[in-house]
Design goal:
- 2 copies of one chain form a homodimer.
- By secondary structure, chain A is mainly alpha-helical.
- Chain A has 8 helices and 2 strands, in the order αααββααααα.
- Chain A is about 70% helix and about 5% strand.
- The mean pLDDT of chain A is about 90.
- A two-stranded antiparallel sheet of chain A has the order 1-2.
- The interface between A and B is large, with 66 and 66 residues.
- Chain B binds a DNA duplex (28 and 28 nucleotides) through helix 2 and helix 3.
Chain lengths: ~180, ~180
DNA sequence: TCATTCATGTAAGTGGTTACATGATTCA
DNA sequence: TGAATCATGTAACCACTTACATGAATGA
């Protein structure tokens, strides 16, 4: 019931794969969850301390390990889908006011967005290659692949949108340019 | 240079279309920018007060109006694209740990996401219809259409991803179900 | 006259970021 | 021996949300 911090979910979840230090938790979040999640540095240690005092994790030789209570708690939190975050897309905010921003700047903004999406697609290709080579975490592979696929679909949609929008913008006279 | 609050951008931007009260600013953000932006209620009035004391807006008969300084400030802020927000997608966070969450719950999560995307597509169809009927804000129409298009591409990508992922999930045995 | 909408605000709290600070270990 | 990486933490701050509070105007 209680609105739980998403940080708790992320930290418990990475510890559910294997025990590790706070430093390694940070790296796992950045390297494995990086394309759909982030935690700021200064948040991980306080969270670990809190989870420890609540007996959801305990100290082991190789860092922090989930306790039984921690595993139950994690599953409970995974099943609780909190309300979707209110949208905040600064690129669209700017484009909505494109007539104030100017044609040229708008066009540039779309092209930057397109370039970012293409860069993401390259990253996803790398991740996919690593994923296919992996076999230590077989039970996870399908789900990991599903999250990568979400990123790919999203990035491809962004590229298609950008191309369409640039074509539409090309047909109007430039201002503020 | 100074990292400017995105709330300032949003508020100044809606006031750039026409002067209005704080209450109307709130409604404009909810109704016109709602599919890519949100501001919480308790933030609009303090922001207006601050913008006023900085002489970016002034009181007019019909509410708050941009000053000349305010219009310059807006354009300056529109041109400053701040770093993209770190991603935080709670659905993907949960799916990444799908083997802990369970097959059935994962499937449900994807179906809910798919349903939300379909609902969004319907909303976009309505918005498009209104947009085509509109002719008071001709200069804005192209840009408004571009933001709706972004939403449409994104929602369609979500549906396609969901269908693919549900098909992939259908072929694995159920657990925790 | 009573409910609803319009309108403006405040206070407390949360979640999160950034910057700072410290020290051990590894390895070139 | 000196740089980079591993490792753990704190303090100050910021943006934003939620809940609360008030009152005027509108319209059934």
């Amino acid at each position: 019931m209680a609105r739980t911090s998403q940080t708790d979910v992320a930290v418990l979840a990475v510890l559910s794969v294997r025990p590790m230090t706070g430093y390694a938790v940070r790296e796992a979040i950045r390297d494995q969850l990086g394309h759909f999640w982030s935690e700021s540095f200064g948040q991980i240690y306080p969270t670990l301390a809190r989870l420890h005092s609540a007996d959801f994790i305990s100290k082991a030789d190789d860092g922090w390990a989930l306790t039984e209570a921690g595993r139950s708690r994690l599953i409970e939190m995974l099943q609780t889908d909190d309300a979707p975050a209110p949208p905040r897309n600064p690129v669209l905010l700017r484009l909505f006011f494109g007539s104030a921003l100017g044609t040229e700047a708008s066009r540039r903004l779309i092209e930057e967005t397109r370039a970012r999406a293409l860069a993401q697609l390259e990253r996803f290709a790398t991740i996919r290659a690593e994923l296919d080579a992996e076999d230590e975490y077989a039970e996870h592979q399908l789900y990991w692949s599903i999250t990568v696929s979400a990123g790919e679909h999203s990035a491809r949609a962004t590229v298609a949108w950008a191309d369409e929008s640039l074509a539409a913008l090309a047909s109007v006279p430039s201002n503020h340019g």
